[in-house]
Specification:
Blueprint: E1 4-9, H1 19-26, E2 30-35, H2 43-46, E3 49-52, E4 55-58, H3 62-81
Parallel strand pairs: 1-2
Antiparallel strand pairs: 1-3, 3-4
């Protein structure tokens, strides 16, 4: 398992993009997991979102959410590398 865990719901708009391919090719330290439900009750139907190390990341579009996910991963890796 990677240092950064990105989770998406299989009912989420994020399934429109190849998040696993995008993230795992750019960030070998990250793992993307698609779950049947993240227990966030309805958020997956409202807007694209993911959990990055249990922190909710939202976007207006799947593409915007991907960019925010990348930024969150960069922040997580920076914090990890500071130790």
């Amino acid at each position: 398992m990677g240092i950064v865990l990105v989770e998406i719901c299989d009912g989420n708009l994020m399934t429109e993009v190849d998040l696993e391919g995008i993230i795992e090719s750019e960030y070998p330290e990250a793992d993307v997991i698609e779950n049947t439900c993240l227990n966030q009750c309805g958020m997956c139907a409202v807007r694209p979102f993911a959990l990055v190390n249990n922190r909710r990341i939202f976007g207006k579009t799947p593409e915007q959410c991907v960019e925010k996910i990348k930024k969150a991963i960069d922040e997580e890796l920076a914090a990890f590398n500071d130790f």
